[in-house]
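Lab notebook, bench 4. Still working through the backlog of constructs that have no structural model yet. Next entry is a single chain of 392 residues. Request: give me the structure tokens for it.
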Amino acid sequence: MHIHDLISDSASLANLCARLAQQPFITVDTEFMRENTFWPELCLIQIADTNEAAAIDPMAPGIDMTPLLDLMVNNEDVLKVFHAGGQDLEIVYNLTGKTPHPLFDTQVAAMALGQGEQIGYSNLVENYLGIVVDKGARFTDWSRRPLDKRQIDYAICDVTYLSEIFPKMLEKLRKTGRGDWLNEEMERIADPENYRNDPEQAWQRIRISSRKAEVLGRLKALAKWRELEAQGKNLPRGRIVKDETIADLAGNPPRKQADLTRVRGLSAAWGHNDIGGRLMAAIEGATAMSADEMPTRDDRKLPLGKEGSLVADLLKLLLKIRSRDINVASRLLARSDELEALAAGQREGLAILEGWRFEQFGRDALALVEGQLGFTVRGGKLKMTRTEEPTP
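Model written out:
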């Protein structure tokens, strides 16, 4: 495989993208920094096919990234392969308003092949290629220039090895017939709604015990205010105000700005400065949350009671057995909260009762809850057994 020097000019990038656009798949990774910013700062993009690989410097003066971004989000003929690509997709979405498509995530695929719940890239490389990845540059500050050869070589390995692993993984999926399982998962991962940052919905990330409409209305207003402050200053949300302080302000609102000096977690200066004034304006402008926006009580979070908890435990046991029998990561089949919801009587809106998950696990899970399935020990192994035939 030909490894290019660091690409830092528009012409070289355009030529590379023109060649990659003719390939059936490309492997992609990014390096970024986000510890001190709201928006992740893209510092390096690595990309490869089976013939060539390159690291691209998006921080290079004057470089036009349009050909690369077009390849990522507008070319439907090239499959984009990532490993644990959630944050990479977020970065592309922030730049384009779109996500790479079609895409394939090797971490998710490894779950379908029974290779662990969240296998790391290094372990994936060692399992498939027998190569131990050098982790010496993993703590690099990727925003600093110049990058040395060791750093660039380390970064490019993330896509060169992946270009060898992907065809091997694809062949395994074909042999096991599990490719169709992943189509649904990949479409879910690629949904742009997963990466859209809506300040109006920021309140949903903050834990609060109150269900009073006026408290939740203030929480919504404060969370939106913090989101806009953080975006405008390009600072992490917690650098503006921490979640617990937002929740406390929503439940116990100060009457006047000077009262902010007594709020734990806020600077005393907020009692008279502009940001404190904007916070108070958010509180004073808040209205009680409307009935149609009030969060519905989630059956998955209701206390199950003694009997319900036992049923949930049986479902978790069934999940272990089924995962073992079909050699798939249990996390891909079902989440604990879904099992608790099923035990509590919920039947709508559960992924385990739809599509391939229903065929592989949900049907048996439902049968267990409804008394049509039990457990037995045969040959020293725990097995499932029908206690009665399901109703047609």
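Notes after review: Strands lie at 2-3, 25-33, 41-48, 52-56, 79-82, 103-105, 373-378, 381-386. The chain is about 45% helix and 10% strand. Flag for follow-up if needed.
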